[in-house]
């Protein structure tokens, strides 16, 4: 029952398949299965820590986009929800509907390495990042590597963003490589929401409390990773999922260590090769 609901987002699809099963029964099963999957999430959604895992992730991104030492691509995606009874205004996103804004990091194989499902739809991606455990980890513990994020994120030594106005051929080539690497998170969201229509707008939005919606998202992210790990075929065309968060590009050109790191990388990879 739970898998059928995750795949369709419709109680009616489940109750139509199973005679004598009420909508309330389906809701309870979905709740219980989601809780079990959330409890097991730390075994399936894991940011690499040991040397072998770190090298494997880095190698995947180097092969895909040519940017070495990349540990993941980060972005947020909105999941539509019903109007909540508490703090309703906080859940209205920039497109005007109620949602949860969920931050994810994935590797080059579209496997989720980190999921943060907690913030209401009005929260900016950069705010969610600044208040995330993974951000604190990068700030507190020196890591030989970086994430790739779009221009809605602050430029840091461990979080590389594109240049807003590239003026040289090396800078343009960096932006092209960055886009190839970053696009994997958009494809990951596309596959996730196609596999599990309950979290896609085509499913009509989840008619649960924000807390339950967050549980359901983590649950289907676990199932998605199981599919990736076991090489389950995905037969539909992979369509990147673009939330169009209208970032205003306010963080992309912050000076400091992040800019120096990016400039050094551009020089190392593309300098003198026009």
From TrEMBL:
It is found in: Cytoplasm; Nucleus. It comes from the Eukaryota. GO terms for cellular component: cytoplasm; nucleus. Transposase-derived protein that may have nuclease activity. Does not have transposase activity. Pfam families: DDE_Tnp_4 (PF13359). Residues 74-225 form the DDE Tnp4 domain. It comes from Strongylocentrotus purpuratus. Its cofactor is a divalent metal cation. Keywords: Cytoplasm, Hydrolase, Metal-binding, Nuclease, Nucleus. Belongs to the HARBI1 family. InterPro entries: HARBI1-like, HARBI1_animal, HARBI1_dom. This is Putative nuclease HARBI1. One of its GO terms (molecular function) is nuclease activity. Its main location: cytoplasm.
């Amino acid at each position: 029952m739970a898998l059928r609901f995750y795949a369709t987002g419709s109680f009616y699809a489940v109750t139509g398949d199973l005679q004598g099963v009420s909508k309330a029964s389906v809701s309870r099963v979905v709740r219980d299965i989601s809780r079990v999957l959330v409890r097991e999430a730390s075994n399936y959604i894991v940011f690499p820590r040991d040397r072998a895992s770190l090298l494997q992730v880095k190698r995947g991104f180097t092969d895909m986009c040519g940017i070495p030492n990349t540990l993941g691509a980060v972005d947020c995606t909105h999941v539509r929800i019903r109007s909540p009874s508490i703090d309703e205004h906080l859940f209205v996103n920039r497109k005007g509907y109620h949602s949860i804004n969920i931050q994810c990091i994935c590797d080059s194989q579209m496997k989720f390495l980190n999921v943060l499902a907690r913030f209401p739809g009005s929260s900016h991606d950069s705010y969610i990042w600044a208040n995330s455990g993974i951000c604190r980890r990068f700030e507190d513990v020196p890591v030989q590597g970086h994430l790739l994020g779009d221009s809605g994120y602050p430029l840091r030594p461990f979080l590389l963003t594109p240049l807003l106005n590239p003026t040289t051929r090396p800078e343009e080539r960096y932006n092209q490589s960055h886009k190839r690497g970053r696009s994997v998170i958009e494809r990951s969201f596309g596959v996730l929401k196609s596999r599990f229509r309950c979290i896609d707008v085509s499913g009509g939005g989840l008619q649960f409390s924000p807390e339950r919606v967050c549980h359901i998202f983590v649950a289907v992210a676990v199932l998605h990773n199981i599919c990736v790990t076991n090489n389950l075929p995905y037969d539909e065309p992979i369509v990147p999922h673009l939330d169009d968060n209208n970032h205003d590009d306010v963080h992309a050109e912050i000076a400091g260590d992040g800019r120096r790191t990016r400039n050094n990388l551009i020089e190392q990879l593309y300098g003198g090769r026009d």
